[in-house]
Amino acid sequence: MSVHIDIAGLRPEEIAVVPSPLAELGMALHALSEPGHHPGLQGWVTGVTARLDPHLADRMCEADFLWRTTFSDLFMPFAGVPGRRTLPGATLAEELDLLDKLTDEQFVDAALEFTCALGYDSGGPTALSDPEVRRRTLELAAARGPQQLRFSERLLADPPRIRAWLRQFLRDCDETFFAETWSRLRHQFAADTRHKTDLLRRKGLADALAAVSPAVTLDAAAAHITVDKLGEGRTATGDGGLLLVPTSLGWPHLAVLHRYGWQPVLHYPVGSPELAAPPTLEQLALRMTALSHPVRMRMCRHLARSAYTTGELAQVHGMTAPEISRHLAVLKKAGLLTTRRRGRYVLHQLDVTVVARLGSEFLEGILR
User: What is the H or E stretch that residue 360 is in?
Assistant: First the structure.
């Protein structure tokens, strides 16, 4: 499971590292709606929530599915501008102007992403133009709750009205809390942008992507980027460019905009507590599967306390040495054991450091 970006024909000058105030506002709204995803932002969330105007808080709940359950591409309108080479604006006002450049079809499709009714990376008929897609969209919105249904009905009935509502809401958020936050974060973004741009120029895309996240890899021979995520998707730079957009409020989320017809975007966290080399999702699944077997769980009880030989474990668990060896092989393949030789004996022990990280790695993996 991963997202692939075909970069065949992409020139170095078509890759840009640029912060986006609107994308960061989207992450701010997400952190306020789902503080459990972002324990490191607890102080910021508490401070903003305490001074939030009740009316603005109510409006924040009105369409929170745009930033709580999905990262709506409406927060990256630059990617949808025709030509697929537009950069984020330097200010929120500039980016709101870019939001106005999206067609009603683009706006509605991006806003209705939470219903999962449309072909995100394949295109197709839209809810504005196709009655069957419209019916299915409203049906799925209703399954998510009355609030989502009301919003979807209003959106489909009068897109300009919802566009005006969203624009004013975002401006009010900026005035109330985001302008101050953005002013504080700009220096961090400037430093990260310089660093990644320097890596691109001096060492190339592979090193720059490695600095973005260990979950992002480049296959130069095949000319594609792979992002290790719980989800599948494909996109291509084609005749457009590739954007790397940093977020200071986004960890552990590593988002990939791969909407059909839009410019590909990697939205990555900076200044995060991300592990230097987190396991791939395949490795994570392998470890959890290895630990789920009752026999291996009982073996781990001993292996966590001391190092044991295969023969000792066989005697303790009343099993044959070959049976124990098979279970040890599973644990070792998952990277959960350390081994060392003492004379003619091989001693096995549980790597408690790796096991202790499994909880945080699981959360990072599913939220990535």
Answer: helix 358-367
Determine if residue 246 is left, alpha or beta; phi over 0 gives left, psi from -120 to 50 gives alpha, anything else beta. beta
Distances (CA, A) of 203 to 17, 196, 199: 15, 10, 5
**By three-state DSSP, how is residue 18 classified?**
coil
**Strand ranges across the sheet with 224-228:** 216-219, 224-228, 2-6, 233-236
Number of H helices, E strands in the chain: 16, 10
Dihedral Cα 149, 80, 106, 261, nearest 10 deg: -110
β-strand pairing of 233-236 with 255-257? unpaired
- pLDDT tens per residue, range 73-107: 999 999 999 999 999 999 999 999 999 999 999 99
Q: How far apart are CA 131 and CA 125, in angstroms?
A: 9
pLDDT of residue 278: 67
DSSP string, 104-148: HHHHHHHHTGGGT-S-TTT----TTT-HHHHHHHHHHHHHH-HHH
- State CA 337 to chain mean position distance: 30
Tokens of 136: 């299915």
Report CA-CA distances (Å) from 321 to 189, 237, 327, 366.
56, 54, 10, 37
Q: What is the pLDDT of residues 143-153, one digit of tens each?
A: 888 988 999 99
pTM: 0.80
